[in-house]
Amino acid sequence: MFRVFQHHISLVTLAELIADSLTSFLAILLGTLTLAHFSGDAGSFGMATALRAGLGFAFLIPLHCGLVGVYREGAIRKTARAKLGRAVLGCLIAAPIAYQLAIKTSVDGAQAHHLMGFAIVYLMVGLVLVRGLLLTAWNGSLVQQRVLIIGTGNEAHAVAADLKSRRLRSHSVVGFYPAGESVLPAEDKRFNIFPRAASIDDIVSRHDVNQIIVAVKEQRGGNVPMDQLLQARIQGIPVMDLAAFYEQTTGEVPVDSLKASFLVYGRGFAQDRARIIVKRMFDVVTSGTLLLLTSPVMLITAIAIKLESHGPLIYSQERVGLGGKGFMCLKFRSMCNDAEKDGVAVWAKKNDARVTRVGKIIRKTRIDELPQLFSVLKGEMSMVGPRPERPTFVAQLREQLPFYDVRHSVKPGVTGWAQVRYAYGASVEDALHKHQYDLYYVKNNSLFLDLLVLFETVSVVLFREGAQ
């Protein structure tokens, strides 16, 4: 994993981003050389101009690939073919913009058209070749983390199963080292369980282990061989507990394996004055800009709601915000006017019968959330943060989910880390998964993570991948 500020980015994602950027840059250079070869003269541009255009391509192409979700990790898994399709779509969207900003400003006349044509051909061929090479590299274990799991209990095998189910090709489990309460017998041939008498140092050497995960909840009383783990750590082998492992690999903090000490002593929770000021400036600028850009959409939405059904345009509902204080959350009305006429709070459901035809559209596209931009300007909400819940649900979830009130240490957001990582949520179980993502955001929040969430929200809206 590669750490940017407080956020962890997988090496696979980083490699894809760098590869696409280099491919875009080389496409312009090769296009320039091809044009010079066929024309016999580079004309009004030389290599310096090509370098400027190449740098523009190297920025704009990956930017738009990211906007359509090429580099997005999380609950929405994409096959290699699907990711290639998204990359091609991102290039097609970026091409006219890159042409205007990176080529036409430096190259005149027909040469600009010719250069663009050659560059697109090289770019498309490069995307296929480079992604094929990357896929071969991941499958060939060229950059694989070889993991030794300490423990043979349910937690240990949950880690192994999770690595397999999430298709983390960069991780390979070499085996389990007995510690804590054993669940599987050592003679079970389905699993590579090392004998307790074996030395962890020898296992690390013989099996090229470069990561150790301690998957034992109770580590006191000699359940874990701390002296051997210390020796491995001194030799440069990363040793992580369950919470740290899941935080790095999945972008969430699992509460079932979480201790308060992890939150108390761990890194993160940047809530100093500088962070608060920067976040507020970011919120004001972003929400003000979005209000100007989306004002025509909001006007059309208001007309559509009025034409379809009677009732108010804006639906206000009490939600719990910063410090556990209540505020009125604003939305375009997407349900029939008497959706909760009995006054009992009900979880929103997938394909909820209470949702109107217009409501289905604006909920899927997140248009119903646009009035909350006014709440951001007012200071009640932030652009990015945990989604605010209703007081009734907060009282319920506070009793069922550990550390639930930690989410109220930051302002609630119009969008959030959970919304771009978890596909749908309409139950206590879904709330648990979202809560774990919210804990990650609160612990690792930064301007970079805010930008990343807004960036990924675009693909969530475009491809209807996020939660309602």
From TrEMBL:
Q: How does it sit in the membrane?
A: Multi-pass membrane protein
By its UniProt entry, which Pfam families does this protein fall under?
A: Bac_transf
Give the SUPFAM superfamilies listed for this entry.
Answer: NAD(P)-binding Rossmann-fold domains
Record keyword Transmembrane helix present: yes
The residue ranges of the Bacterial sugar transferase domain are 279-462
Classify the main location.
membrane
User: Which stretches are transmembrane?
Assistant: 12-38, 50-72, 84-103, 115-138, 281-305
Q: Which domain of life is it from?
A: Bacteria
Q: Where in the cell is it found?
A: Membrane
Protein name from the UniProt record: Sugar transferase (PEP-CTERM system associated)/exopolysaccharide biosynthesis polyprenyl glycosylphosphotransferase
